[in-house]
Specification:
heterodimer; A: 6-stranded mixed beta sheet; about 0% helix; B: mainly beta; 4-stranded antiparallel beta sheet; globular
Chain lengths: ~110, ~110
């Protein structure tokens, strides 16, 4: 039973345009959400997080939106750059239940074309 | 240090041998987590520590897997009597506190032959 789903295995975007990566979850206990970027042969790199008490968090070119009623979050990257090309993972945890482990989606491969 | 340091980068063992992986968390971080990436994009949680105490071991196959985080030493994950199915990349992560992001090392690729 996959509790965090990233339904798009891949996404291709032109440099300078917006990239939108989507993530859905099923576990209503999740209250803390994170996005990671991963290059081959490296560990996931933390990008941005959001707590369930918020619906938006911004950090530079990265914005995460959370829609709790739909159990959906998205990561917006604008403007997209070729160096953003990587696999992006959505992850969630249930801090309120003292459950700090991360549950990951299967990732979306983003390709930003020059 | 400022990064999670995992050693070795690659470890090769014959089936039935022991494997031991190490992780130095970021200085000042209280929580350490181990994850197993078997298929390319699937992460499985194994165990977490709060300082040197086991916090959550619900993901550990207890028969052959063990882990420790002792004071003033790197954390370790040990697999006894390895099986082919243990071949995976093992990631360690640390966080400053609950509710803080987990920061990952670059992983140890374990190959069981």
């Amino acid at each position: 039973d996959q509790q965090v789903k990233q339904n798009s295995p891949s996404l291709s975007v032109q440099e300078g345009r917006i990239s939108i990566l989507n993530c859905d979850y099923t576990n209503s206990m999740f209250d803390y959400f994170l996005w990671y970027k991963k290059y081959p042969a490296e560990g996931p790199t933390f990008l941005i997080s959001i707590s369930s008490i918020k619906d938006k968090n911004e950090d530079g070119r990265f914005t995460v939106f959370l829609n709790k009623s739909a159990k959906h979050l998205s990561l917006h990257i604008v403007p997209s750059q070729p160096g953003d090309s990587a696999v992006y993972f959505c992850a969630a945890s249930a801090l309120g239940g003292s459950n700090y482990k991360l549950t990951f989606g299967k990732g979306t491969l983003l390709t930003v074309n020059p | 240090g400022e990064e999670v340091a995992q050693t070795p980068k690659h470890l090769v063992r014959g089936e039935g041998q022991k494997a031991k992986l190490y992780c130095a968390p970021i200085k000042g971080h209280s929580y350490v987590f181990w994850y197993q990436q078997v298929l390319k994009n699937e992460f499985k949680f194994l165990i977490s520590f709060q300082n040197e105490n086991v916090f959550d071991e619900t993901g550990m196959p207890k028969e052959r897997f063990s882990a420790k985080c002792l004071p003033n030493s790197p954390c370790s994950l040990e697999i006894q009597a390895t099986k082919l199915e243990d071949s995976a990349v093992y990631f360690c992560a640390s966080s400053r506190d609950r509710g803080q992001p987990q920061h990952f090392g670059d992983g140890t690729r374990l190959s069981i032959l």
